[in-house]
Amino acid sequence: MKRFGGKVLFLDRSDINTDEIIPARYLTEPSRESLKPYLLEDIQLEGFSPTKDLAGKGAIVTRANFGCGSSREHAAWALEVNGIELVAAESFARIFRQNMFNCGMLAVSLSPEIIDRLFAEFSGKETEVAVDLEAPSFTFTADGSILEVPFTLSRFEGDLIEAGGWVELADARY
Amino acid sequence: MGKTVAEKIFDAHLVDRPEENVFVLRLDAVFCHEITTPLAIKDLEARGKDRVFDPDRIKAVIDHVTPAKDSKTAEQGRVLRLWARRHGIRDFFDVGRNGICHALFPEKGFVRPGSTIIMGDSHTCTHGAFGAFAAGMGTTDLEVGILKGVCAFRSPATIKVEILGELKAGVYAKDVILSFIGRIGVNGATDRVIEFSGPVVEKMTMEERMTLCNMAIEAGATSGICAPDRTTVDYLWPFIKDEFSSPEAALAAYREFCPDADAQYEAVISHDVSDLEPMSTFGYKPDQVRPVREMENTPIDQVYIGSCTNGRIEDLRVAAEVLRNRKIADSVRGIVSPATPEVYRRAMEEGLLAAFLDAGFCVANPTCGACLGMSTGVLAEGEVCASTTNRNFSGRMGKGAMVHLVSPATAAASALAGHIVNSTLYRG
Question: By CB neighbour count within 10 A (0-12 exposed, 13-18 middle, 19+ buried), where does A40 fall?
Answer without folding.
Answer: buried
